Amino acid sequence: MKRVAIIGGGISGLTALHFLRQKHAEAFAVTLYEKDDRLGGTIGTDRDSGFISDWGPNGFLDKVPLTLRVVRELGLDNLLEPAAPGAEKRFIYRNNILNEISASPLKFLRSSLLSIPGRMRLLSEPFISQKKDERDESVFDFAVRRIGREAAENMIVPMVSGIFGGDARQLSLKACFPVMVEMEKNYGSLFKALIAKKRAGKKASAAGPSGRLTSFANGLYTLIEFMQNKYKDHIQTGTEVVGVDKNDTGYNLYFRQGRPEKYDAVICAAPAYAAVQIFSIMDGELGRLLSTFPYASISVVCSGYRREVIRHNLAGFGFLVPRNQGKRMLGSIWTSSIFKGRSPEGMVQFRSMVGGATDPEAIALSETELVKLVHDELKSIVGIENKPAYTRIFKYERGIPQFVLGHPDKMSRLERLLKSHPDLYFTGNAYEGVGLNDCVIRSDKVVNQLAKRAFTPAH
Ligand SMILES: Cc1cc2nc3c(=O)[nH]c(=O)nc-3n(C[C@H](O)[C@H](O)[C@H](O)COP(=O)(O)OP(=O)(O)OC[C@H]3O[C@@H](n4cnc5c(N)ncnc54)[C@H](O)[C@@H]3O)c2cc1C
Question: What pTM was computed for the model?
């Protein structure tokens, strides 16, 4: 049996463990090392006084069969909770009102989200000529070029801060939205591509992400709890890996405490900034490359109110705020409209985001300041009379990796460097996608690579 070590017990490390146990239990002896006393990384759920509040992610989109397969294999499918159908409506706060983002062209034309020239410019997208070169471009530049500056500022900038906590002017289109690059390349226009997809019977929407947000009745941490329970014999929590080196017979792992351990293969599922420390001595160039993967800080503020003190009907998913509207929050999700049972009877829960790449100073705000900021802004946007009856704050100094311009080149360099370290693999949200689905897909990919190498006769 080959010995495999996994470093990091977030969703990436845990799904790598799952795939190794599920598909190759006979071939590999696996141990997962997690530095903290708990598993899950940014996934966590507080359950208190009838409120259920997710720390980081609050769900995944149900469009990736692999993730749903993992859930099924864990025996968790009966606990899945898709977002309520009424939660489909999404809003953007602009000019002091919440504007619904509608996928229907007629409704969109009537919406006041954009000025009339802004709407006309957006609708002229099919007539804008295609980009000729292959150079990477920022998400913002792409949006300005295709749908105009007003739509870029007021639709794309907030969408990017909602998904990545990112700055659309810095993020790489190729790395963040490869589908858009393909749509323009293959159809010459995003509208034409959406129409073609619709005709081919595929689900396509310009108003929100495809797929429905899905979680578990008792919060997202349910997934981690089940994995921990199922794989407890293969997991060591409270065990920080501080270094890895390599010799002719494999890899040695060094820990903050305890004796080193020898492994045939290593899957690193710790964040890129943690991997810098782990791998810099073994390969300085690899360490330097990993240190160039930036992260944005972000804070999540969960707040609960009595339903009757809120003017807005909260029928929908929530809203995003463009950076030019004089508000500091990036947006707010109406948790209790999306998932029932997230607040006690007669109460509602908001989940608001502050910070991200466009507001790095926000991480220094104290919990009291964050609660006040979010309450004051919610008050003016949805109309609230009283102070929140419940609050929970989750702060992440390095919360979400930023796929800035040049990310695709960094990924090519990483692949090249890893050629000289056979049986060393990197998974996690810093490489090919920041969503939970992306982490699951990447972990499956590295496990397949590992198995392929192990089962090739020369090895
Ligand atoms: C506020 C926020 C909201 C989000 N919302 C969503 C959402 O709604 N939907 C969605 O799909 N995604 C969302 N994401 C993204 C998603 O949560 C992450 O991409 C994903 O959870 C990352 O998982 P991971 O396992 O790659 O990394 P992590 O969760 O960071 O896990 C890495 C683990 O490695 C451990 N570790 C670090 N160093 C060492 C070491 N030296 N030795 C051993 N262990 C180590 C850490 O303690 C940690 O447990 C959100 C992220 C944030 C921050």
Answer: 0.95
